[in-house]
Amino acid sequence: MFTGIVEERGAVVAVEQLADAARVTIAGPLVTSDAKQGDSIAVNGVCLTVVDHGDGAFTADVMRETLVRSSLAGIAAGDAVNLERAAAVGQRFGGHIVQGHVDGTGELVSRAPSEHWDLVRFGLPAHLARYVVEKGSITVDGVSLTVVEVGPDWFTVSLIPETLRATTLGLREPGDRVNLEVDVIAKYVEKLAGPHLAAEEGDRR
């Protein structure tokens, strides 16, 4: 589990394309400072397992499902990526519950810089729109953010200077693809409440 508070902006060192997967090596001195084989590190919001590490970098395998569902299919050597180690028990919880299980991708539609923050609009896949609410939480490329406004196929967030400096969101431009993870609590509520709401609707008919 993660919190969506990016610890480090790392860089892709190498990408090895395999038959139905990819092996990526990523430089991140901070997140690898205490890394062990089998540890989890979120890369642009995708939970990956460390299979090797050394010299301030780690290697992880990315399976086909992850490549299909996330933007990791398009990463290349030299790309900047957001990195976060799995949350430790007892630490402050600065963001929200983030699983590192990407629900889909969106597209950066526009950004409007102001003196103290950027207002950024992202395209939102229709099947995820019902989980996104104004002032709720959403994860974009591994960054825990608060939704400012939401429409049928878009949402906006405000990015403070620290987020622009410390994460890849300061580098993103219109047309760029980003990973999205909606609040898992909303999905559980839907699953648990759905049958009861359907039954009540049937009783009223």
From TrEMBL:
One MF term in the entry's GO annotations: riboflavin synthase activity
Which reactions fall under this protein's catalytic activity?
2 6,7-dimethyl-8-(1-D-ribityl)lumazine + H(+) = 5-amino-6-(D-ribitylamino)uracil + riboflavin
One Pfam family of this chain: Lum_binding
PROSITE patterns found in the cross-reference section: LUMAZINE_BIND (PS51177)
Q: Start-end of the Lumazine-binding repeats?
A: 1-96, 97-193
Function of this protein?
Answer: Catalyzes the dismutation of two molecules of 6,7-dimethyl-8-ribityllumazine, resulting in the formation of riboflavin and 5-amino-6-(D-ribitylamino)uracil.
| Protein name as it appears in the record | Riboflavin synthase
